[in-house]
Amino acid sequence: MKTPHKKKLKAPLTVEQKINRRSFISFSAFAVLSGGAFAGWKWLLNAPEETAGITAGTRAPLRRALNKTELFFRNFFSNKHLVKTYPVEQAAKNPRVNSLIGIEDDEDFDITRWKLQVKLNNQKTRHITIEEIKALPKTEIVYDFKCVEGWDEIQHWAGVKLSDFLIHFQLENEAEKQYMGLETPNGAYYVGLERESILHPQTLLAYEMNGKTISTEHGAPLRLIVPVKYGIKNLKRIGKMSFSNNRPRDYWAEQGYDYYSGL
Ligand SMILES: Nc1nc2c(c(=O)[nH]1)N[C@H]1C(S)=C(S)[C@@H](COP(=O)(O)O)O[C@H]1N2
Ligand SMILES: [Mo]
Fold first, then answer.
1. Could you read off the pLDDT of 180-218 as tens digits, one per residue?
2. Boundaries of each Oxidoreductase molybdopterin-binding domain copy (predicted)?
3. Helices 15-46 & 60-77, crossing angle to 10 degrees?
């Protein structure tokens, strides 16, 4: 049988030794932490803007922290979470028109010659007609459209699901990029949207409102309906579509609005 191992015991610390030890530890911790805080502050201050002009001058590290939160909410809500829908009778008969950037300022626009321009990964541009888009399965939605200015209205839209569109036109490789950029034909209004909202099952390329062709003011011939976002992201009169891993420029984000603008 083994004999129990005899440990050598250290002499217990005196009260004074304990105090000295503690104050040394806490002082070092204080020094390290405050040094770190100062260095962190300097680092943040000197850090470059994420992309000049895109997020109203938020420093990149701060923006990254915000992006992390954004990512959490995205993963949490997108796709799994559906926006509430309503019976069609509740839809506004004369939905309000809000803002006409890229529409009223484009005198050269000729709807009969319109084609959606899609920028492909190989740098070529694909041109898609409204007839090709209307030939795809039609999806309708009646939901509460919300503008950041503080109004909302139940509206009835129809068009092709953006995800169906991407599959039909073999744009899956493009859609693997993190963002989609959309702009009006004259480039005056433009938005960037992250992949999850693009692929959200309720996101439409809409060509009808209240069962009729969309009017010019509401974005004819084709507009975006992205119910998980505020109105600002719902670009009217889409001219160009592009894909990227960097955030595309965004009209209202440049004015200081939240880039994500989710509900
Ligand atoms: N081309 C373009 N799209 C746009 C806008 C705009 O000024 N120009 N305004 C946005 C805003 S702020 C809102 S609230 C909605 C309003 O859409 P509606 O006029 O169909 O109600 O369109 C969005 N899409
Ligand atoms: Mo808006």
1. 999 999 999 999 999 999 999 999 999 999 999 999 999
2. 109-252
3. 90
